[in-house]
Amino acid sequence: MLRLLKAAAFGLLLGLLGNIANVYEDMRKLEEHVGLGLLFHLRGPAKAPADAVVVAIDRESSERLNLSNNPDRWPRSLHARLIENLSRVGARVVVFDLYFAEPRSPEDDGALAEAIKKAGNVVLAEQLRAKEITSSIDADTGPSGHRIVETLKPIEPLTQSAFATAPFVLPRIPVRVSQYWTFQTGAGDSPTFPVVALQLYTLPVYPEIRALLSKARPEQAARLPQDANAAIESAGASRFIRDLRQVFHSDREVGDQLARLAVASGSNHKTIGALISLYTGANHQYINFYGPPRSVTTLPFYRALQLGTDGANGVPVDLRGKAVFVGLSENLLAERQDSFHTVFSTTNGVFISGVEIAATAFLNLLTNTSVKPLRPSHQVMMLLVWGVIVAIICRLLTPLGAAIGILLSGAAYLFAASYQFRADAVWLPIVVPLFVQAPVGYIGALLWDYFEINTERKNIRQALGYYVPEDVVTQLARNVVDIRRDGQTVYGVCLFADIAGYTPVSEAMTPRELSDVMHKYLEATFAPIHKHGGLVIDLKGDSILAIWRGSSDDLMLRRKACEAALEVADAVRRFNQSNGAVKLPTRVSVHAGTIFLGSIGAGAHYEYGVTGDTVTTASRLDGLNKHLGTNILVSAEVLRDLTDFLAREIGTFLLQGKTQPVVAHELICRAADCADRQKTAYTTFAEARQAFERREWADASEKFTQSDILFNGDGVSRFYLKLCAEYRSNPPLGEWNGTIAMDEK
Questions:
Q1: Pairwise CA distance, residues 393 & 403, whole Å
Q2: What is the pLDDT of residues 9-23, one digit of tens each?
Q3: Are 556 and 446 members of one domain?
């Protein structure tokens, strides 16, 4: 559960990172360029609705009509013929993506104005002069950087004759076109000509919209004219559209209510819904391209002139009730000025014409299928949820499992995003979730695991360091399997310490009290061992086994062990003085020799420890302390060549269970700390031992008695006095070299 909570917290951070990244303009441009582009490519080309047709002013038409390749030089009477022909075949709306800003011959201009007026359904393009035009469009304010200076309408006769004039500006190459204005803020919120074309195209449903509005908001309906045509004729189409939009913007809930009423009425609800979506939406839209150039039904200009005539044989296009967009359109590389880079340009290298983009925008508005980014609040929540999902996968699975999980979940996310885009043109973010959050989450989880494992490893190493040597800890960290079978035969000095009378003390205390006392005791005794480089290798009950190890016999190791033995005795003395009634007298023994250091055990249980005769001898020496009444016994192997300690040779003993005798010495103190009286006592004891080994029991007894007096009570002297008394009646048999056999530990 704790790991899951940590993963969730990591996920929230990942979600926060995604939302922060999503705020940056460069990331949003990348999302638009890469993410939206990927969704288009996954969807592929789509069939464009048949409600709009592009009449292409192209090179083929120039050649067929024997005209200049520059459309600005085409006679305007030719456009008049086109309008007349389009009216004859039943086109509902005609939009010219051409600028008629300069007058020509009165005959040409008059002919075009007459044709436009007679048709009554022609929308002309206004030219915008801008200081700056970029493709960066803010989610709230639209394209940043647009600074419109003035609007250039077509010449007066054409403006007066047209249903409406409207601007439509797109950024130039190499900027990829993804969005367009619905209402040009730099030109006084003027509706662009895809919007004007939509309003003209859907004008027949205006009475129904007003009737529904009268039910939902009577006071708002009263602000709208009864007759749309009369209102447009008196105030202009742009003013009529802005007034209609203002009604929806002044009351944000009216759009939803009107849409529900339209669905309930059952007639024209899709068209009404499209208008409501336009008027309640932002000033800009993302274009839902249908595919490469000519995805929208396209008819060359010269063939459009033949519609409804005898020369129209083989022309299958039916323009009845459709919106016709007239403008420059070439299915070639960007040779014309009015050509633009889109998401599908990377597929075939062909740019799309501005007039086809306008027709695409019109179809998007009519069918309410413009690309819809997630609302900011939904996007924030989605990135948070996705961050948590990524974090849980990365934190709860192994690195390989996490990598596979991320790939699978990323594929599932991409499939869902592609499905949403294909079905409803909903644009889920791609770059931030898949290329920012997912890799950052995976790498972050790996780093988190690394730091956690590294911390755990340090803690384990530190903990193991209390029990085993540093090099063994390193070996365990590298290969825990081999350590079970591995070990070292080394030279070692073993220090064995044991509490005298531990059992009665433990019986008199509760386990908790005994634990507290032993903790203080071990803290006191461990300190000198660690101080002199010893390693406490085993701790059982009241016994301590410490070692000093080396590659060979080392005088320095033996000296350190002796220093530690003396200081352990001093530490115990201080402990007993400060611990009230509880006394823990301690016996210490030291022996040196070859030891095996490694893992001991089988199956699933191993302990790190030492084995060998050296360890056994050290333990037996500790037992000898009990019989002799001594505090510190060391073997002759330990004291060899050591001259800076005062010790007395106790004798040669065949310890219980051993076959080889050991020469034992009582370690008294450092040589510099000894008093003269102590030295006299040691001399007397040595003389007594010599008499003992010569079997002069009476003389030996006399000298051991003197030694006992000089030492103010000496357990070793009394031990020998007892032996002298026994040997007087039962002397050792055969050749005897002074070795004393011990039958007890």
A1: 9
A2: 989 999 999 999 989
A3: no
